[in-house]
Amino acid sequence: MSRFTVYNNIVTEEKWKKVNPNNIQLGEDWLEYLQSVDRSPQTLQAYRNDLRIFWVWCLDFNNNKYFPELTKREVAKFQNHALNTWGWGSSRIRRVKSCLSSLSNYIQDILDDEPEFENYKPIVRKIENPAKVARREKTVLTDEQVEYLLATLVEQKKFECACAIAIAAYSGMRHGELLQMKPVFFDDEHFVYESMWKTDKVRAKGHGKEGTPLNKFVLYGAKPYIDLWMNEREEKGIDSDWMFVTVSVDKNKNRIYNQRKDTSTWVDWCEEILGVDFYLHSLRHFTCTKLHRMNLPSHVIQEFFGWASSEMLKIYNDLTAEDEFGKYFGKNGIKEIKQGSLTDI
């Protein structure tokens, strides 16, 4: 079963019709402003969803009050309701409060020349966040599990999924980056350092519509699975610039191939095979951990992922210091460790 998130049927069409129109308009004005400063469509949609929930809460439990008139006590009341009635986790509450805080800053910084808002002061950040608690147990995948998963997918002839899992496992790509892969990225011209492919720049996580453009690196170990999927594409006559596709049929019964957007079916298959909680992001941890285990220098791992900060190395490395003791210490004292190379993987 996929990692579980508490989703409540909070916003209904009937309730939405009763929401304070001033709140709706204020929210839309803010989102329009964010669009003008090049916030990504994904960010805007997330903010819109969070606002809809908060506006309905105001309707149901706070007399449909206009947002600029909220008090700190009322913000705390919302937080308590989300935590103890809706069962939200601390991370989700922090995310929604961050949205509301950004809206508050917009009122203070952009609308301050309007008489209605000239004395407005943001209050959302005054309310302490709930303690951050991990509600989901992290899945740490072993080499054996990933090898078994890939072998089983191949045995089941699920070559597209096997290719995607292999690319993720040998690159540490995010879900959104993975679905931007193209067959041309895996030709000879993109093969570098005799050990990996270097893709053209794709949209990685970051500010703006284009995010942070990054070249992604995919280690050669993914090749058998890439080849299987490329061969199947050729056999099926799949003509698409995108590596991973969905198919539809037009009115003339012609097949139309589109960029795949959803991987939930793949995740379900992987969970069924492994018998553990599986999510694509676990392969990002898997890749980083494996590179650490192979004794690659930290700056090489950081460059491989395209991380601006070395702090990310700590987040995605699942090895503990105790896990590493046997590598560095023996009965004769401290061992001499050979530095690893990407060609070893």
Describe the secondary structure blueprint for this structure.
Blueprint: H1 13-16, H2 21-36, H3 41-61, H4 72-84, H5 90-109, H6 143-155, H7 159-169, H8 175-178, E1 191-192, E2 196-198, E3 202-204, E4 212-214, E5 217-219, H9 223-236, E6 245-249, E7 255-259, H10 264-274, H11 281-293, H12 298-305, H13 311-316, H14 321-328, E8 329-330, E9 333-334
Helix pairs in contact: 2-3, 3-5, 6-7, 6-10, 7-9
Describe what this molecule looks like in 3D.
- There is one protein chain.
- The protein is mainly α.
- It folds into 2 domains: 13-126, Orthogonal Bundle (DNA polymerase, domain 1); 143-330, hpI Integrase, Chain A (Orthogonal Bundle), CATH 1.10.443.10.
- Helices cover 47% and strands 8% of the residues.
- It is built from 14 helices and 9 strands.
- The chain has helices spanning 13-16, 21-36, 41-61, 72-84, 90-109, 143-155, 159-169, 175-178, 223-236, 264-274, 281-293, 298-305, 311-316, 321-328; strands at residues 191-192, 196-198, 202-204, 212-214, 217-219, 245-249, 255-259, 329-330, 333-334.
- The strands form 4 sheets. It has a 3-stranded antiparallel sheet with strand order 1-2-5, with no helix packed on it. A two-stranded antiparallel sheet has the order 3-4.
- A hairpin with a 3-residue loop joins strand 1 (191-192) and strand 2 (196-198).
- Helix 3 packs across helix 5.
- The radius of gyration is 24 Å and the shape is elongated.
- 25% of the residues are buried.
